[in-house]
Amino acid sequence: MRDLDIPADVIKEFRLDQYLISQYDGRRYYAINSSTGVIESRNTIDYDTMGRTKFLMLKIVAVDVDGQKESTTLNITIMDVDDLPPRFLRKPCDDVTTTCDVTLYAAEIDRHFQMMELSISTTSQEC
């Protein structure tokens, strides 16, 4: 956050102020360098443990040498990524040397006819 028309030494400090709605306030996850304005995460952000709030807001304030303040809001959307390895839910399948039955269902629907036909087949596979 820097205005190229103004020399860098005119900005006295950068800071994060409390966002109006506290549940979206991102200050618990992010910090700002008061002299450079660089924003960095404080710790790892885990989508799965954030609860219902999947986006955060940062109210960024710049203060010049005369004490004049200007602020903007940065909206951050937390995206989910597959960060957990796959695992079997059935206990006998936990051991890689154990063979267990996994039932697969395949369905085909022909949408070209008024009357839809649904055929389901099952197969077993090894884990």
Automatic annotation (TrEMBL):
Gene Ontology BP terms: homophilic cell adhesion via plasma membrane adhesion molecules
Keyword vocabulary terms for this entry: Calcium
Database matches in InterPro entries: Cadherin-like_dom (IPR002126), Cadherin-like_sf (IPR015919)
UniProt keyword Calcium present: yes
Signal sequence bounds: none
One Gene Ontology cellular component annotation held by this UniProt entry: membrane
Residue span, Cadherin domain: 3-88
GO molecular function: calcium ion binding
Domain of life, per lineage: Eukaryota
Identification of the protein by name: Cadherin domain-containing protein
Organism the protein comes from: Dreissena polymorpha
